Structure formats: structure tokens, C-alpha cells
Amino acid sequence: MSVTEQAVGVIGAGQMGAGIAQVSAQAGYRVLLADVSLDQAAQGKAGIAKALGRLVEKEKIGTEARDAALALIEPVASVAAMGDCAIVVEAATEREAVKRAIFAEVGKVLGPDAILASNTSSIPITRLAQAAPDAARFMGVHFFNPVPVMRPIELIRGLATSDATVAAVEAFAEKLGKQVVHANDAPGFIVNRVLMPMINEACFALGEGVATVRDIDLACQLGLNHPMGPLTLADFIGLDTCLEITRVLFEGTGDPKFRPAPVLVKYVEAGWFGRKTKRGFYDYSGAEPVPTR
Fold this sequence. Notes:
By secondary structure, this protein is an alpha/beta fold. It is built from 11 helices and 10 strands.
């Protein structure tokens, strides 16, 4: 049965998972949203309600569309409820051990024709597929943050991913209104292979005293015609996530150009992850972000 005829499971109710759940519900799918607890999943749905409310305020959607989307999202206590899902998207933290444990758990209930997809932004799909119940029905589906706004989805097939799985996920992505791009199974895929070295180099520049946070961001924003500077973007992504991806690139390629910048490591060690902790390269505790260096 195609993914357009059944429910969608989303594992992880944080920023990425909630975004995936939101766009799936807005496309008309029934969504089961899970996290480490039912309370966390419910908090994820509450965040979606706020996001949809903002769209109503901006007159981008009506109240009926908001209510219809929210009615399709059901927070669940565990992945055990996802047995009837046609596709399950894992959107947990970017740590391989965590993802493998999730795959083992959902594999116990996944239907015989259901697809398991990972929203990993950098970890090789063929390697992750070893922990999936069926490697032929497993692939990478990399959404971009914020999911409701960003149009692309990177689709990454592993060595064993079947053509039928790719076709089904393409149809799913297109129903969400996303633009599909295909990437080979290499560390970082397309976007992060290009983006993370830029962010990492901005961190090196900061650590080596080339310029301040503000001047690095402003120079890159204006000089490269980007919507925001690389350090602002790193805070938005999460410095812990940036470090995890950079380490995957470094370890996966063995190329020293991907070596994580010491200042990035230090900020993560301090628990300064960016916007989600109110402190990263900027301090977000006040009305306006203030550079921390």
C-alpha cells in the first residue's frame, strides 16, 4: 500500500520532528508523533499548534485548515503505536547509537511493506541500514530546518534500498510540496558537505581572532549575499548538531579539512548550543541577540 493511503509515524518531537509532523498533517496525513515520553510528544504538538497559530495570524492559512491539521496529529507514548504506519520517519538527535536503538525498537512493530526513513543529515545510510528491519525498505530523507519553510528534501538511498522504496518516498515528498534532490550515500550528502566546512571555517576565524562574531556574520551575510551569517546559522541549527555533523565528515572521509574548530568544541562542552539553550555565539536571553565574543 502506498504511503498516501496510511498514517505517517514521526519519531522525535523536537524542532525537526515537529516540523515534519506539521507539514505531513497539513498535506492530509494522519500523523503519530512519538518522543522519549508522551509528555514530550504532547509538547511537540503544542509547539506545532503555536506555529500554525502564527500562520493564521499572518493570514497564510485559515482557522479551519489549522484545526484540521492539528486534529490529524496524535502524540503517542511509544513507537509501539506505529504498526499501521506506511512510513516512519526518525528525526532523533544526530547520534548513530541513538538512531540504531530506535530502529531496533520500531522494527518490532513495522509493517511488512512499511518504509523506515532517517532524517539524518550526515550519517551514511548504508551503515544505518544494518540496524533497520529491512534494508530494502530503508533510506535517508533529509528535511531542512525550518521544515515548513524550506522546500528541499535530500533523498539518499543505501546500497540495498529498493527502487520501489525510492519511488514511494518521492511521492510522499512531492505530496508535502517539497522539491526532491538525490544524493549519493557519502558523508554529509550534498548540503552539509558544503555548508558545514563554511560554518567550521567561520569558527576557526573566530577562534584565531580574525574578527568578532558580529563582523564575521555581517561580512559573510553581505559579501556572500546570504540571508544570515554562518555563526547565526550555526546557532539556529544547534552547535551540538553542527559538531556532530562535522565529526561525521571528519571521521567518514579522514580528510583533515573537516577537523572541528576548537572554539566549536568548547562551546558545545560548555552547553552553549545556540538558540535552543539561549546561548551560543550569541546570547538570546534579552530582547535582541548579543554576541558572546
